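Input for the complex:
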Amino acid sequence: MKTKIQNRIALTTIRIIALLVVFILMFLLGDILIAGVPHISWHFLTAPSQSFTSGGGIGVQLFNSIYLLFLTLIISFPISLGAGIFLAEYAPKNFLTATVRMAIEVLSSLPSVVVGLFGFLLFVVQMKMGFSIIAGAIALTFFNLPLLTRNIEESLTAVPDLQREAGMALGLSKWRTVTRIVLPEALPGIITGVVLGAGRVFGEAAALIYTAGQSATNIDFTQWNPLNSASPLNLMRPAETLAVHIWKINSEGVMPDASAVSAGSSAVLIIAVLFFNLLARLLGNALYRKLTATKNR
Amino acid sequence: MDVGKYNLNENNILNFSPEEHEIAIATQNLEVFYGKKQAIFNGNLQFERYRITSLIGASGSGKSTYLRSLNRMNDDIAQVKGKIIYRGLDVNSPKINVYEMRKHIGMVFQRPNPFSKSIRSNITFALKQNGIKDKQRLNQIVESSLKDAALWDEVKDDLDKSAWALSGGQQQRLCIARTIAMKPDILLLDEPASALDPISTSKIEETLIELKKKYTIIIVTHNMQQASRISDYTAFFHLGHILEYDKTKHLFTTPKITATNDYISGNFG
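Predicted:
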């Protein structure tokens, strides 16, 4: 009888805690969305921002955020894939790899503002990149790399050794076993990690303030030559992202509709991150089905 | 069954006379070390072609270690010394292309480990990696190897379903099919039925008895009945030593040494 009551108490407590977490999250989300969604319109999403008058949009910032994210992933994914495969499949257990692991751990707990200032000193000032998208992308790579590497390593390690033995016993080389058997099986986990990391990168502000800069220069969406300074694709132009924009209007915005722009931008940011999470799940599952020919997970 | 002339040496190890028996693979002075701990001492065994040979012994006796050494699956975790003679080559030599060798000496593991792919891809995957692209030929191999593994009738309509949808016994037979699709000479099986129920086990046993017409089979088993049911020869392992190797019938009815007798009659610690 006593164990039954104990069990019930424990279960109820856990349920209450879980509900509490859900409630807090819903409250936060609801508050931001209710305040921001009414302000979202096609004009708001596409128009350039205004510094002193009302009616500005976030078109440039939104594009900058997406472009920066894209660049960050292009730089960080191949590096972390290689590092993750090495750590999970090849790395011998010795002092060197232990040090590498520790470095990754330290890097992942580095405050993003420190990453930003480091990027400012090294890329913006020392390497004379100026406030630019590329400096921002490299700073975000520092920020993203440890998490992504960790995620890839863990996804690979989670694949049972039996699968590796199966491949080896069929005469496949280790490399083929890793890339054709282990990697596909780990892919859903990797994709999920990449997209979740993308959500984090998308919302990052502190690392970008001093690297990608705080100004959204006017860009010409008809000019797609990356070497033209007005082109959206230009790597060397300063680029204020959505998250930096929110920070900026809240700290020094002087436009009359600052609070509305801030609320709208926050809602857009949250919706984008939610979308990333949803995408992570859908993509992960779809890939898993395709690669494993199973109906469902 | 009549196996012709053979003799037992002074260590109770059967030696074949080459005129009467074709030897598929043999080890000479095989020794395996895990770090400083020696797991196999003085492994001298010959395996006759198109026969089933069982390796029996208690847990930790080294039988799996011995088996896994035969196609170098222990390379990363243990040190293997001595010779493994296959077709006049020393498989244990560093010059051997292990990946090529493993296509000749295939292995099936204790727990079914199909790839997370469809039943068809499980079989065609390694073939495609080896450059067989012709669809028709691949389909033929899928069918013939599944038939050889006695799985065809059960899965022929579901070839594109996931291998994980199969039962444990079917998965294990799929793993056998996948291995024989590579057309190996020798099939190594590491307790292939120990994770399966009795019905699946007997299916695997029937399959193996069919397969020995085409393959040389070496099987590690904990199940004494299994060894006596299916194998022609049996080797008894004890603490890393091979204490006795004989025709299965002789080893189980008139063991030469007490340790073997104790083990097969269950009087063992």
